[in-house]
Specification:
This protein has 2 domains: 22-216, 2-enoyl-CoA Hydratase, Chain A, domain 1, CATH 3.90.226.10; 219-267, Lyase 2-enoyl-coa Hydratase, Chain  A, domain 2. The chain is 43% helix and 15% strand. The protein is built from 10 helices and 11 strands. It holds the Pfam family ECH_1.
C-alpha cells in the first residue's frame, strides 16, 4: 500500500500533512483527496471521516480553490463504515453515535463546500462509501465499478446511506439496493442517476480535466451561489423554489462577476472574473 506523505509543492500548489488513511494534494485550483487505506478497503472510520472533513474545509474560502476531487487507491473506493467501531462489546452507544454524527457532518460538508465536489470511482463503493458517492455534486465511475448498500446482510440496515441514495436515484432502485443488498453495475448506476457518467479507466483523467477546466473557466462566486441555491430549492415545493430562484437571480446580478458576465456577452469578449 502506498502511504500518505507530506510533500513540498510548487508555488501554484498546496501542501499538507496527511495520515496513513488519506492524502490531500492541491495543484493550482484543483484539490484531490485520496483514500489510501487498502488494509481496511478504504473504510470510513471515525478518524478517516474527520480527516476528509478537514481536507474539505482547509482554506475553502481561498478564491484559488475551484474544485475538489474525491478518489481512492486500490480496487475499492470505500467499503463504508469500519464495522469494528460498532462492536457493542468494545464500543458504547455514545461512541457509536459519534461515528454516525461524523458521517452526517461529512455529507453535509460536501453540500456546504463552496466549490463542486467530484467523486471518482474505479471499483466498489459500498454502504457509506456509496452514500458518499451519491452525496457528491458530480460522480464519475469506470465500467468495472459497482455500487451497493449491503448493510442488512450484516444486521445493520443502511439507513443513513439510504438518505443520500434515495435523494439521487428513483425510489424503486433505492429500495432494491437497500432491501436486497445486491450490487448494481456502473451502467445501472448511470441509468439510475447515481453517477454522472461512466468513463473508460484510460480516459478518466481526460474527462476529469474536461470537467475541471469547465469549472475553472467560470466565476467561483457564481458557481458557489448556484450550488448553494440548487440544494436549497431541490427539497422545496415548486412555488417556494421559484420565489427563492427569483431572489437568487437578482442577487447573482448584484455580484461584480454577474455584471462582468453580462457586459462581456454584450461586448462579445471573454469575461475577466474577479471571483466576487
Amino acid at each position: 500500500m502506498l502511504r500518505c506523505w507530506k510533500t513540498v509543492l510548487s508555488a501554484l500548489s498546496y501542501s499538507t500533512t496527511a495520515s496513513a488513511t488519506t492524502r490531500m494534494f492541491q495543484e493550482k485550483g484543483i484539490r484531490t483527496i485520496t483514500l489510501c487505506d487498502a488494509k481496511t478497503r478504504n473504510s470510513l472510520s471515525l478518524s478517516t471521516m474527520n480527516e476528509i472533513i478537514n481536507h474539505l474545509t482547509t482554506n475553502d474560502g481561498d478564491p484559488g480553490l475551484r474544485c475538489i476531487l474525491l478518489r481512492a487507491e486500490g480496487p475499492v473506493f470505500s467499503s463504508g463504515h469500519n464495522l469494528k467501531e460498532f462492536d457493542s462489546s468494545k464500543k458504547g452507544t455514545e461512541e457509536q453515535r459519534e461515528v454516525f454524527a461524523a458521517c452526517t457532518r461529512l455529507m453535509l460538508q460536501v453540500v456546504a463546500s463552496p466549490v463542486p465536489v467530484v467523486a471518482v470511482v474505479d471499483g466498489l463503493a459500498a454502504a457509506a462509501g456509496c452514500q458518499l458517492v451519491a452525496q457528491c455534486d458530480i460522480s464519475l465511475c469506470t465500467p468495472n465499478s459497482t455500487f451497493s448498500t449491503p448493510g442488512a446482510s450484516f444486521g445493520l440496515f443502511c439507513s443513513t446511506p439510504g438518505i443520500a441514495v434515495a435523494r439521487t436515484v428513483n425510489r424503486k432502485m433505492a429500495l432494491r439496493m437497500l432491501l436486497t443488498g445486491l450490487p448494481i453495475t456502473a451502467e445501472e448506476a448511470y441509468l439510475a442517476g447515481l453517477v454522472s457518467k461512466v468513463v473508460m479507466a484510460e480516459s478518466l483523467d481526460s474527462e476529469l480535466k474536461t470537467i475541471t477546466d469547465a469549472i475553472e473557466s467560470k466565476s467561483r462566486s457564481v458557481i458557489s451561489l448556484g450550488k448553494k441555491f440548487f440544494y436549497q430549492q431541490i427539497e422545496r415545493d415548486l412555488q417556494t423554489a421559484y420565489q427563492l430562484g427569483e431572489e437568487t437571480m437578482v442577487n447573482n446580478l448584484s455580484l461584480r462577476d454577474g455584471q462582468e458576465g453580462i457586459k462581456s456577452f454584450i461586448e462579445k469578449r471573454k469575461p475577466t472574473w474577479e471571483h466576487s
